[in-house]
Amino acid sequence: MALQDWGIRPVTPITDEQFSLWQAQIEARTGITFTQTRRPFLEISLSTRMREIGIDDYDVYYELVMSGISGEREWVVLVDRLAVQETSFFRHASSYALVEQYIKQRLADKSCYSLNLWSAGCSTGEEPYSLAFLVEEMITNHQRQDIFYGITATDISFPTLTKAKQGIYIERKLQGMPDALKFKYFTQLGNKRDWQVNSDIKNRIAFAQLNLMELDKAPFADMDVIFCQNVLIYFRRFRKRDVVTQLAMRLRIGGILVLGVGEIMDWQHPSLERVEYADTLAYRRIV
């Protein structure tokens, strides 16, 4: 029996011309670059969405995406398919260890009464929630309940942000997290399969849609910590530099920018200095 008999159709190959067209449009609007090695992923993502809405031609779908309000709505759905969303709680432990060290120094400063953190490219929420757990634990351990803190979490994908706001995760997502944290900051739901972040933590986080290509529109400033990991990996070198430079200027003096290791090379900024910390890529604003 053929696949077609089961209703399963093979992915329609995308031509070189169509690939170049989609490649240019996606990069222009999101900064994400699709090289030839990622061409199969683009084919699968596009063809899957096309099949869902009854279109079998890449050019026809392109025209749809580019046309008016309906095209904008479709673009939101497509971006959610194209954005890399694989993440986990406390991913890359050394980066969180650096943030812990920085927060400890801030809490030791008796003139410090607030902390502002930003998870840029927050995906489904594991990163900003991890930051919130970390800050909560440190405030408790250092008896600094007089400190107010807030976390801004942004992502390009509306559907992904919706999932992040709900703060609901399957048991597998919490594997590796200490039970003390799990039972303190999550509540198991009635289906016994899912866990939801408690409301007091969720209330500390403001989720917002933001395209990193449009950071000039972001009204953020004086951040203590900006956490931006596994976001820039598919950006071109010059776009990475533009984004990181924009992020850097939203730090308070003394604040730190934490990036994914290896995501940007040979970048310097006159207002920042490299933070020397094992297995991390981070910068501190000095002026």
Automatic annotation (TrEMBL):
- What Gene3D superfamilies does the annotation carry? Chemotaxis receptor methyltransferase CheR, N-terminal domain, Vaccinia Virus protein VP39
Which UniProt key words apply to this protein?
Answer: Methyltransferase, S-adenosyl-L-methionine, Transferase
Q: Where is the CheR-type methyltransferase domain?
A: 13-287
A molecular function (GO) term? protein-glutamate O-methyltransferase activity
An individual GO BP term: methylation
Please give the PROSITE patterns that the UniProt record associates with this protein.
Answer: CHER
Q: What class of enzyme is it?
A: transferase
Q: What is its EC number?
A: 2.1.1.80
Source superkingdom: Bacteria
One matching Pfam family: CheR
Q: Which reaction does it catalyse?
A: L-glutamyl-[protein] + S-adenosyl-L-methionine = [protein]-L-glutamate 5-O-methyl ester + S-adenosyl-L-homocysteine
Q: What is this protein called?
A: protein-glutamate O-methyltransferase
